[in-house]
Design brief:
pyridoxal phosphate, PyrdxlP-dep_Trfase, PyrdxlP-dep_Trfase_major, binds 4'-deoxy-4'-aminopyridoxal-5'-phosphate, Aminotrans_3, Aspartate Aminotransferase, domain 2, 2 domains, Aspartate aminotransferase family protein, Aspartate Aminotransferase, domain 1
């Protein structure tokens, strides 16, 4: 009997005992192809020898030192690596233990920036519906995932909410992609004006939406429009790339494909690839300069910031990605994955949309393709698909639709950057069989 508060309090998951490359093995000796990296975490696969060696070296030398007393070479090197490879003047890094902490840090850094430059009346953020920024209270507040928020809503800071950018769901049939994008930007500008631009800290958004709607990329020009509006109204643009960043979409940062540079970026999952818990915030020159010129202190901090062992793992992961040119692999295998999803799944009667970038793909399931009507959430189709895939030795990340019934069940696919063509074939073929089987059961039930 497990004494852990597991995600489900009704069941205990299989016990993972070992992992190698793209596979995890459970206590019964069964192997699973990890085609979602847990939650888009394991970008290098498991047990990469170079990462393990770097971690061993670090632990032998210096496992931990508190930042109130020391910095360490490894953390300094990781900061140098990340700021060297980031575009624009994202010249500073702050290291935490995961994605939610990174988002909390970004929100507080943005707020302190305005206090330091004499604009303390800026107290609110603008963020989008159907987004996820983490489960701590600040991150949950900017997030727009109602299912995750609803119990805690009374505890959350007030946020100005605008629509998600989701062309499959929200672009009208008679509307061009450009007109849809402009409509969203008009809505954003209107929301800024109604709230009072002088009261706003910044706009926070996932570049490619991950957990809530499944690898949903922005439309062309959308983020450039966001950048322009933030500049026009003196707001900061915070890109949450906790899930979609660090190479997952084929460029180190997903926003590079949109030709914008945010003021603050959060990264986490692919930063350390799951070898250690680590997240980070990258901040632009002007923000850190304002703090330097002002109080000379970022009023924040956790016990495990700049953890040397976590930094050693992340540095090794990032060095392997660069050395082995794995962003090219993400582009090549990503193209194969998307093509197969379109060709093999796209024709199925209950696959409404396949989308994403690089090795970050989403499949949205619908009961009716023409009207895009989702399945009844009571069917818990996503849970059936997950169980069926696990039975066949495949890990993908299915999620339910939204509470308002607007968005359907979807599946997130995020294999490691070392994934092979035949592993991609297995993922797509297995998913096809599972979707046919599970949607067939629902059709018989209806
Ligand atoms: N932001 C985004 C975009 C995420 O996808 C997640 C995690 N799924 C988080 C923040 C929170 O990260 P963590 O679970 O590491 O706290």
């Amino acid at each position: 009997m497990s004494q852990i508060i597991h995600r489900s309090l009704h069941s205990t998951p299989p016990v993972a005992v070992s992992a190698q490359g793209a596979y995890i093995t459970d206590a019964a000796g069964k192997r699973y192809l990890d085609a979602c990296g847990g939650a888009a975490v394991s970008c290098l696969g498991h047990a990469h020898p170079d990462v393990l060696a770097a971690m061993h070296r670090q632990i032998d030398q210096l496992a931990y030192a508190h930042t109130g007393f020391f910095t360490s070479d490894t953390v300094e090197q990781l900061a140098a690596q990340l700021t060297r490879t980031a575009p624009g003047d994202l010249n500073y890094a702050y290291f935490v233990s995961g994605g939610s902490e990174a988002v909390e840090t970004a929100l507080k850094l943005a707020r302190q920036y305005f206090v330091e430059i004499g604009q303390p009346q800026r107290t609110r953020f603008v963020a989008r519906a159907q987004s996820y920024h983490g489960n701590t209270l600040g991150a949950l507040a900017v997030g727009g995932n109602e299912w995750r928020r609803r119990q805690f809503a009374p505890l959350l800071i007030d946020v100005v909410r605008v629509s998600a950018c989701n062309a499959y769901r929200d672009r009208r049939a008679d509307e061009s992609e450009q007109a849809y994008t402009q409509r969203l930007l008009n809505e954003l500008e209107q929301a800024i004006l109604e709230a009072g631009p002088e009261t706003l800290i910044g706009f926070c958004a996932e570049t490619v939406v991950g957990a809530t709607t499944g690898a949903t990329p922005p439309t062309p020009g959308y983020l450039q429009g966001v950048r322009r509006l933030c500049d026009k109204y003196g707001m900061l643009y915070i890109a949450d790339e906790v899930m979609c960043g660090m190479g997952r979409t084929g460029t180190l940062h997903a926003f590079e494909q949109d030709d914008v540079v945010p003021d603050i970026v959060t990264i986490a999952k692919g930063l350390g690839g799951g070898y250690q818990p680590i997240g980070a915030v990258l901040a632009s020159e002007k923000i850190v300069a304002a703090l330097q010129a002002g109080s000379g202190l970022f009023q924040h901090g956790h016990t495990y910031i700049c953890h040397p062992t976590a930094a050693a793992a992340a540095l090794a992961v990032q060095q392997v990605i660069e050395r082995d040119n794995l962003l090219e692999a993400v582009k090549t295998q990503g193209a194969r994955l998307h093509q197969q999803l379109r060709e093999v799944l796209g024709e199925l009667p209950h696959v409404g949309d396949t989308r994403g970038r690089g090795l970050f793909a989403g499949v949205e399931l619908v009961e009716d393709k023409a009207s895009k009507r989702p399945f009844d959430p009571a069917f818990k189709l996503h849970a059936q698909i997950k169980a069926n895939c696990m039975a066949r030795g495949l890990m993908v990340y299915p999620m339910g639709g939204t509470l308002d019934g607007q968005y359907g069940d979807h599946i997130l696919i995020a294999p490691p950057f070392i994934v092979t063509a035949s592993q991609i074939d297995f993922v797509v073929d297995t998913l096809r069989q599972v979707i046919v089987e599970e949607t067939g059961k629902l059709a018989r039930r209806a």
